Every structure is written in structure tokens, then in C-alpha cells.
């Protein structure tokens, strides 16, 4: 007997919604913008899976590339060996970013990319003869995956409270959200400076000569699409430069076109020392992550062979041939269809299929004023609708919205009382209309 009920099945996906004792919703196939459910319904994917299927589902080039690669070279070790597609992919990836962001380390997930970046940061200072720099600073409300380093620097207290001290020497800066709420959509003036000063406060508190790196999501995704005010990330960069601290952008969500630019670093005009990515790199097909590293870091490791030997790091599946093939075909698809800039604000004629960011913004903001809606935020092709929590039952209202939207044929995601949207970047205006019309019906009808 195969049970598909979350509560008594043999599969143990911890994140299943035990809280609400729900039967799982089974997806059996997917094409372009739509999933098909086990009961034969079409559901519009308003979340690109888990923020990852940026080019849309079942794209032929990507499917064919994976199948071809599986027949040609199924596996090659990345220790003492390699294969041509790993080199090709690394060079294609770095061409998306300005120099000196010139090197790529391959992982299998966002969590692994984060662990890798944190280890590189600590090792970098040692290699430079600066072994006293051991502290890592994250940000409240930051999400950096579920491994030990990621939950340590992550700013979600409930994710780390069962695991004792975790990484030592970690601290967190305050999040900008409450002051910065909706700053982007209101075109708010530049009050990033005073918020960023919190970083300097924390750095000085610990003594700058002990601080190795700061990691932030440029736009916090999983905690509800929290967009920084203008100037904030620039100021973080300046403080890091002043104290010889590496700045890491976690672009696992914001990378690969999500903000209407290839990366958030393009959107905000701030270059970090490392960028972590995953998800959209292989369009959610074969698992892959990557850390982009500036040349100065790469070169520091290369100046003495002993450094490379001391820095032992790598995964059995780093640069897996299937993942590399999937990622190359994904990059082709992005390029051919202009997807990395599809979410930009409209520069041309409305309805030309480009610059969907404007259409997205206008459509989402029609939901302002609907029952329980206390905020609507957007950037690129990301959206958030924040609901007032139900007294005594936080998260219930948003979860009900999720269930009702799914019934009505749109997949949304919720985090706390925030509905998060991140559709595949191949969507068209009528898909946006469908998402917003469904949400309008759902919101009218919430407890
Ligand atoms: N960092 C960020 C910003 C993320 O959003 C996520 C996943 N949502 C991760 C890291 C972890 O990625 P993964 O689930 O692939 O390990």
C-alpha cells in the first residue's frame, strides 16, 4: 500500500503542512506556465515552483539537453577531473556579470552555495594572513538555507532554536523592513544610510579586525519580499570596504532575472565580493547551485599551492554533467527569449511582451484595499501581499488563501501572513490577469 497522506506516508518531508493536517496536493505533470494535478486540473504556477522554474516548465531545449547528456556522460568527478561543459558553463555564467566577478564554484543547492561562500570567506582571510577575522554577520529575517552555517547567519530564530550555539562568532544586523516597507513602490527618498549604520554599530561592537564577512539577501525573499530602500546596499558595501569585510549577496532567489535584471547586483548597482545562486541556474530541473567569486579571492587561493590543499571543499556532485547541461540549455533559453530582463519596468509599448514589471506592478496594486490586505509590494516579477493576521491564529488567513487559490487554479506561496508571488518569467499579461483575478476572488472570501 502506498500512502500519499503526509501524516502516515513513508516519505518524511518535514516541511509538509503538518500544522494544518492537510492531504498533500499531488502534481503529476507541468508545461510552460501550468501544473497538472493528480485529479486532472490545470493550476497556473504563480511561484515558479519554489522560485526556481524561471523559464517555465518542460522547456524543450532543457529537456533534450538533459536527456542527451544522460546518454553521453552521466557522471564525472570534479576532483582531479572535469568535463568540458563545466568549463563552458563557468565561462557563460561569469559573462553575465561584470569583471572582476570572474570565477564560479559549483554546488548542488542554495544551502550548499551559502556554506561554500562562508567557508571561502573565512579561508580567504587566513590565506591573506588575517586569521583573526572569524566573525560572520547576517541579517534579521535573512534566509540562507537549512544547513548549519546558513541557519547560523540566517535571521529566522525559529529555524535555529533547536540546535544550540551553532556557528560561534555570528551576529545579526537589524532588518530594514519596518522602516523600508514599500519604499520601492512609493519611490521613497534615500533613508538607506541610517539603516545601514546598524552594520557599523555591530561591526564596531565586535571589533572590525575580527569580522570576516557579511551576508544578506539583496531582497529578502522567503521572509516575505522585503525590498531595501535606495542607498542601503551601497552603504553596506562602503562599511565592508572600510573594515576589510567581505560582502556576500545571497542571490538564490534574486538571481537569473527575478528582478528584471540578470542579478540583483545589476538592479541595485552594488558589487559584492561573492554571490550565491541556485534555483534558476538550472531552471529547477537538475539540482545545482553556484558561488560567484571575485578574482581577488580566487587569486589569493592560487598564490601558494599549499592554500588550495589546506582548503578542502567540494561535493561528489559539484559540476554534475546533467546539471551543467541543464544550466547551459537554461542560459540559452533565457537569452533567446530575453527572460533575464522580462520583468523590467516597461520601456516600450504596453502589450509588447517586454518590460512586464510595469504591468505586474499595476495589476498587483489593484489588490490594495481588498479585505485584510495591509501592504502590497513588488519588484521585478516578484510580488507580496501582506495580510493582517487573524487574531489568535497567525498564518491561518494566508494559508486559507493558499488553499482557496489552489482550488481555483493558481499556485501561490505563503510565508507567515504574507502571500509571495514569483511566476515563471515567460508569463504574459493574461497570466498576470489570471493570478490577480483569482486572488481578488480569494481575498473577498477569507475568514
Ligand atoms: N538562500 C536563499 C536566499 C534562498 O531563498 C534559499 C531557498 N529558498 C536558499 C538559500 C537555500 O536553497 P536550497 O533550498 O536550494 O538549499
From TrEMBL:
- Per the record's keyword annotation, is Secreted included, yes or no? no
Keyword list, A-Z:
Aminotransferase, Pyridoxal phosphate, Pyruvate, Transferase
What are the required cofactors? pyridoxal 5'-phosphate
Keyword presence, Lipid biosynthesis: no
Q: Return the protein name.
A: Omega-amino acid--pyruvate aminotransferase
| GO terms for MF | adenosylmethionine-8-amino-7-oxononanoate transaminase activity; beta-alanine:pyruvate transaminase activity; pyridoxal phosphate binding
The Gene Ontology biological process terms listed for this entry are: biotin biosynthetic process
Question: What is the originating organism of this protein?
Answer: Methylobrevis pamukkalensis
Q: Which family does it belong to?
A: Belongs to the class-III pyridoxal-phosphate-dependent aminotransferase family.
Q: Name one Pfam family in it.
A: Aminotran_3
What InterPro entries does the annotation carry? Aminotrans_3 (IPR005814), Aminotrans_3_PPA_site (IPR049704), PyrdxlP-dep_Trfase (IPR015424), PyrdxlP-dep_Trfase_major (IPR015421), PyrdxlP-dep_Trfase_small (IPR015422)
| Enzyme Commission number(s) of this protein | 2.6.1.18
